[in-house]
DNA sequence: AATTTAAATAGGAATTATTCTTAATTGTAT
DNA sequence: ATACAATTAAGAATAATTCCTATTTAAATT
């Protein structure tokens, strides 16, 4: 665990807008989708800026990354306190409410002598729409 | 859900050896690691062959894919009936035993009117070794 | 055992997502 | 207003994965 150099974080318009977009969207966009959306307001924004700011926002705990398939990483506001369902057919992502799993982290920490900081639970299957077809 | 053309699957030495390697390793190798290992026995094997056979083995239900970070997809024998712990510091992956979660799929299926086929639960944190440092 | 045929392979090119590099820009402290 | 370091845009570089094609090979048929 290398000690990180402490560097002041400046407020930039780009990061502010990325966060606001994530805050207001109901979907779980990919970096590509975020980039395309930002281009409407900031036509000169680059992918590097999107990725860098997503990393910063995640380190600040304001957003979190959901890794739900080989191809697509998705982003959302807040930390990972809920789970996701991903339709294997149409790729849609749904937030999912499940019974309390808060003591799972402790259970795993105790049994395996590790320090669990978070978990990520993803369900895969067919959504209501795709089942009909 | 497009109907898939039924195509005979032939037994090849390459696929057999990839499966045997996964069967006997205790780690959760990446495609790269599998490729390097296969090269010892099959010096002419290509990445395409590794990826194609991993896909086939997964479709046959003989192995499964664990997506545990943006950078690294990992493979293991069997289906995903257990969970994983990933150390955020050293990247090591551990199999984790947790209390019965078998009715989680049903719980989610019922509440969200979807058909859950599998779930993937990953814990992130610091392993015993990395905590000491 | 030889022949046939489509599936699988090797090899390498192409694609895609992400990270890196650098000169120019900009937020903020003075 | 000025200075300075953090951030940006732009595009090159990298890495993982997929795709393409001529050749090879498993296995069914003769």
Shape of chain A: flat
Oligomer status: homodimer
Sketch the topology of chain A as an H/E string, one letter per element: HHHEEEEHEH
CATH class of the largest domain in chain A: Mainly Alpha
The greatest interface here is:
A-B, 42 and 42 residues
Helical percentage of chain A: 25-40%
The largest sheet of chain A has its strands arranged as 4-3-5
- What class, by secondary structure content of chain A? alpha+beta
Tell me the domain tally of chain A. Answer: 2
User: If classified by CATH, what would the architecture of the largest domain in chain A be?
Assistant: Orthogonal Bundle
| Major sheet attributes of chain A | 3 strands, mixed
Report the portion of residues of chain A in β strands.
Answer: 15-25%
* Overall radius of gyration of chain A: 17 Å
Q: Number of helical runs of chain A?
A: 5
What name goes with the CATH superfamily of the largest domain in chain A?
Winged helix-like DNA-binding domain superfamily/Winged helix DNA-binding domain
Compile the SSE list and pairings.
The structure is a homodimer of 133-residue chains.
Chain A: H1 13-24, H2 31-41, H3 47-59, E1 63-67, E2 73-77, E3 83-87, E4 93-96, H4 102-112, E5 115-126, H5 128-132
Parallel strand pairs in A: 3-5
Antiparallel strand pairs in A: 1-2, 3-4
Helix pairs in contact in A: 1-3, 2-3
Chain A binds a DNA duplex (30 and 30 nucleotides) through helix 1 and helix 3.
What does this structure look like?
2 copies of one chain form a homodimer. The first copy, chain A, has 2 domains: 11-79, Winged helix-like DNA-binding domain superfamily/Winged helix DNA-binding domain (Arc Repressor Mutant, subunit A, Orthogonal Bundle); 80-133, Dna Ligase, domain 1. The first copy, chain A, is flat and about 45 Å long. Helices cover 39% and strands 23% of the residues of chain A. Chain A has 133 residues and is an alpha+beta fold. Chain A has a 3-stranded mixed sheet. A two-stranded antiparallel ribbon of chain A has the order 1-2. In chain A, a hairpin with a 5-residue loop joins β1 and β2 (73-77). The relative contact order of chain A is 0.13. The first copy, chain A, has 5 helices and 5 strands, in the order αααββββαβα. In chain A, α2 (31-41) crosses α3. Chain A binds chain B through residues 1, 65, 67-70, 73, 85, 87-89, 94, 96-99, 104-105, 107-109, 111-128, 130-131, 133, and chain B through 1, 65, 67-70, 73, 85, 87-89, 94, 96-99, 104-105, 107-109, 111-128, 130-131, 133. β5 (115-126) of chain A pairs antiparallel with β5 (115-126) of chain B, so a sheet runs across the interface. Chain A binds a DNA duplex (30 and 30 nucleotides) through α1 and α3.
């Amino acid at each position: 665990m290398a000690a990180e150099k402490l560097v002041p974080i400046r407020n930039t318009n780009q990061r502010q807008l990325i966060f606001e977009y994530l805050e207001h969207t109901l979907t779980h966009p990919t970096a590509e989708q975020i980039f395309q959306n930002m281009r409407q307001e900031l036509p000169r924004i680059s992918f590097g800026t999107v990725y860098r700011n997503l990393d910063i926002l995640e380190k600040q705990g304001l957003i979190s990354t959901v890794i739900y398939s080989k191809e697509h990483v998705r982003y959302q506001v807040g930390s990972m306190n809920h789970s996701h369902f991903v339709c294997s057919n149409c790729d849609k992502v749904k937030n999912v409410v499940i019974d309390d799993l808060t003591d799972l982290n402790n259970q795993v920490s105790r049994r395996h002598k590790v320090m669990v900081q978070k978990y990520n639970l993803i369900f895969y299957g067919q959504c209501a729409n795709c089942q009909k077809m």
